[in-house]
Structures are given as C-alpha cells and as structure tokens.
Amino acid sequence: MTIKKAMVIGSGQMGSGIAQVLAQSDIEVILNDIRQEFVEKGFAKIKKQVERLVEKEKITASDKDTILGNISLSTDYQDAKDVDIVIEAATENKKIKLEIFRQLDEITKPEAILASNTSSLSITSIAAVTQRPEQVVGMHFFNPVPVMKLVEIVSGLRTSDETRKVIADLAETMKKVSIDVKDSPAFVVNRILMSMIGEAMFTVYEGIATVEEVDEAMRLGANMPMGPLQLADFVGLDVCLAVFEVIYQGFGDSKYRICPLLRQYVEAGWLGKKTGRGFYNYE
Ligand code: 3HC
C-alpha cells in the first residue's frame, strides 16, 4: 500500500509540522482540528515556513504553490472517509486520543492505517478501541518536525508487520530516518530525553545551579543545541509532564520521580514558549 492521501489530526506545532512534510512529499493532506481558527493558524504557520524555504532558495515559488495546494483544511472527521492514513497529533491526553481513534475507526475505509504521534502512550491500548488493531501504529515525530530527522515506528502488541512496513516507506518518502520500537512507556527517545530533562529540573530545584547555568553547562559541556530547560519550554511543559506521568506510572520506579517544580509551573499555566512563560520568560 502506498500512501497518497492523509489526514493529520491536530494543527499544533507537531500536527502542522507533520502536515507540512507530508505536503512537501507530494502527499495530499487534510489538516484537521476542532475549530476553524485552529486549522487556519496551523496553515498560516506552514505557509510561513514554506515561504522561508523559497527565500532560502531551497524550493521555487512554483514548488511552494504545489506544496500549499496539497493541503486542505477540515474540522470534520467525515472528511477522512477516503484517506489512506490518519496521523493523530492531538493533545497528549489518553481519553481524547481514544475517542478520536474510536470515531475514525468507524469513518475511515477498512484498509486505512490509523497512526498516532503520541509521545508516550501505549499504542496497544489505543489500538484496542478499534476494530483494526493490526493497522494501528505509533508514528512518532520530533519537534521541529521539518528539521528533526527521526521517526520512531511503534508497534503495539497487535500491529502487523505490513503496517509497520507501510509506515517505514512513508517515513522514507518524508526523508526521515525511522527506527522500530516496541510499545513501552515513552518508547526510546522520550524515555531517555525526559529522564535527562527531569534531572535538569531537579538540579535547579535543589539550588545546585540556575536555569541559565544548567542550560549553558549542557550546551557547552554536552554539546546540546539547546539546554534541557530551554528544550522543555520548547516542547511544552504540559507535554513534558504528560510524558513523565506515563513513564513514572508505566515503570513504577522512583528513579522517574517527577520534579515538583514542573507540576507547579504547569499548575500556574506556565507551559513554556507557547504561553510566554516557562523556565524562561518570553514576554
Ligand atoms: N520549523 C522549521 N524549521 C526550523 C524551525 C522550526 N520550528 N526552527 C529552526 N528551523 C530551521 C531553520 O530554518 C534552519 O534551517 P537552515 O539551516 O535551512 O537555515 C535550521 O532549522 C537551524 O535553525 P537556526 O539556525 O535558527 O537555529 P538552531 O541552529 O539553534 O536550530 C533547532 C534550531 C533545530 C530547533 C535546534 O536548536 C535543535 O535541534 N534543538 C533541539 C530540538 C530537539 O531536541 N527536539 C526534540 C524535542 S523532543 C520531541 O519533540 C518529542 C516529543 O514527543 C516531546
């Protein structure tokens, strides 16, 4: 099966990035969200990124028109009737994701693949709410999607080998490098990355060093492109907390304890760059 038409659910930073790369790969894509203003905002972001590619002479103005022409906007799951794949990139909330999969299982054609960009949730449990668990798979991208090369392909207990292969081909078409991962809390990258980000938070919480010092230390001493706390702000502290919860509950190991500072920031609505305040102040 070759993917020709896709629906991306969620037009936030991940969803719009995924839609952009699909459109750049000549795949027709429907960008879906719950409100028209959300999809329009997502599309505006894609347009800006694609226009920058023209400015940088990476693509022509005619390529830009083709890419943007590959994208349509939707607020109705019924538009997914004839897609080959749905890539869900909605809020990292299990209840919401399960409801989306339940509904899409009823709407999409029987051979369609239902993929989730979940950062940490069990693909096996998402698959279990559908009548096609063999065609449910994790396709986990990294932020910013147009730049980061990796895709984790997460096979749930019942995901078929054929589905995994279609996703591997799609990742290649999208010029990504994929790795196969077993279904386990937070998979590979986020399990390791979030553990490190968690230690950075505790280092600040315990007064060992300041936010700026921790980030500078990791940039200059560990060659990270951005420090762990800046990265946490960039990913979103709510997303980080959701991933931490899954890792902590999934393994039940105190080494994955959650820094109280993170909980407090999320409670305060300091969710990182997107809200103007996180470990840094962006206002
Ligand atoms: N979208 C598209 N392109 C972007 C971008 C964005 N949001 N941000 C930067 N870029 C592009 C720039 O246009 C530039 O392209 P060019 O080389 O063709 O000119 C290139 O990336 C480099 O950008 P800059 O020179 O402006 O800045 P940096 O060199 O600092 O790179 C960065 C920016 C790529 C974001 C870099 O800081 C980085 O790699 N940071 C770490 C990102 C990371 O670790 N992501 C994973 C997060 S975890 C995750 O996503 C999992 C999830 O489940 C939580």
Automatic annotation (TrEMBL):
Which InterPro entries is this protein grouped with?
Answer: 3-OHacyl-CoA_DH, 3-OHacyl-CoA_DH_NAD-bd, 3HC_DH_C, 6-PGluconate_DH-like_C_sf, 6PGD_dom2, NAD(P)-bd_dom_sf
Among the GO molecular function terms of this UniProt record, one is: oxidoreductase activity, acting on the CH-OH group of donors, NAD or NADP as acceptor
What pathway or pathways are given for this protein in its record? Lipid metabolism; butanoate metabolism
The residues listed in the UniProt record as binding NAD(+), with positions renumbered to this chain, are 10-15, 33, 92, 97, 119, 143, 274
Question: Which residues belong to any copy of the 3-hydroxyacyl-CoA dehydrogenase NAD binding domain?
Answer: 6-183
Q: Specify the superkingdom.
A: Bacteria
| Family to which the UniProt record says this protein belongs | Belongs to the 3-hydroxyacyl-CoA dehydrogenase family.
Q: What is this protein called?
A: 3-hydroxybutyryl-CoA dehydrogenase
Natural source organism: Enterococcus canis
